[in-house]
Amino acid sequence: MLAQPAQLPRHLVESAILNALAEDLGQAGDLTSQAVLSPDAWAVASLSAREVGIIAGLDLVAAAFRLVGDGVSFEPQITDGHRVEAGGVVALVSGPARLVMSAERVALNFVNHLSGIATLTRRYADEVAGTHAKICDTRKTTPGLRAFEKYAVRCGGGANHRFALNDAILIKDNHIAVAGSVTAAYKAAEAFAGHLVSIEIEVQTLAELEEALAAGARIVLLDNMDNDLLRQAVAINAGRAKLEASGGVQLDRVRSIAETGVDFISTSQITMGSKPLDLGLDVTIGGVE
N or C: less crowded end of the chain, CB within 10 Å? Predict the structure, then answer.
């Protein structure tokens, strides 16, 4: 069964755009457009790609042009998750020139950033194609943009790890250190969690993996293990738990990690190491409407 397309909640989109417009326009508005452009000036523009990539964030672009004021038309030519070639037109924009210019940077900041994440995620996903491993993100995201960055990961063909501290239990090495042992930490979490709360535990050695499995762990994060250790961990596990490899996951290594037999590969690189995709808004027609 195919996964449903990624989607962003409207209230998150509008809140983010209103905050971004307020930040950029301040109390006086766009001084340059007010000074240079007639109130009757009209602009027709194209949002175009200057390099190959995967698009993400068009709902945010649409909201930027919708919320900046009345009269701006936004017509997407493709949808999020699709590949665009260099020179390809992503969307058409038309409306009062002052409004188009005032929303331009907010719109581009979001779509360039999120499309960069989607593009890098797709590269990772393509690298592991043919294995059963899935590429996942982490909580290493830009503060305030997590929902959008994780959405971009989905647009690029990746999967989301937990969104926040409150939607799953992930027992890390420091939790284990304070709790006293892998077993003590896992059993405490098991006693605490509701029946719908997932529990994952991080291990750094094969001995810790064996202890976690004996304690009943069903999802285990294998932290900073080399490929030989990952293969041994898969053999020890023998299908009992889902295994996630994490730590030091670079693009040139991800294929070899996937081939060890792990189920998931999580990396902060796709959200924290991506560069913005180069998209620009070019006015094709200007004048008075």
Answer: N
Tokens encoding 222: 């294998």
Tell me whether residue 240 is one of the annotated catalytic residues: no
**Residues 6 or more apart from 183 whose CB is under 8 A from it?**
211, 214, 215
Question: What does the pLDDT read at residue 284?
Answer: 84
Segment (H or E) for 244: strand 242-246
Catalytic residue of the set 10, 172, 240, 275: 172
- Is 265 a residue whose pLDDT tops 70? yes
pLDDT score, position 2: 52
pLDDT, tens digit (0-9, with 9 covering 90-100), for 50-60:
999 999 999 99
Q: Output the pLDDT for position 230.
A: 98
Distance CA 199, CA 241 (A): 11
Query: Annotated catalytic, 211?
Result: no
* CATH number for the segment(s) 10-124+275-288: 3.90.1170.20
Q: How many angstroms separate the CA atoms of 177 and 158, rounded?
A: 32
Give span(s): CATH 3.90.1170.20, the chain.
10-124+275-288
Instruction: Tell me how far apart the alpha carbons of residues 150 and 111 are, in angstroms, rounded to a whole number.
Output: 14
Among candidate residues 149, 202, 208, 244, the one labeled active-site is: 202
- Strand-pair category, 264-266 with 134-136: parallel
Give the pLDDT band (50/70/90) at residue 6.
confident
- Residue 271 pLDDT exceeds 70: yes
Determine whether domain 129-272 maps to CATH 3.90.226.10.
no
Mean pLDDT over 27-37 rounds to 96
- Provide CATH 3.20.20.70 ranges for the chain: 129-272
Provide the H-helix boundaries in the chain.
Answer: 10-25, 31-36, 58-67, 97-127, 146-155, 173-179, 182-192, 206-215, 227-237, 251-258, 269-272
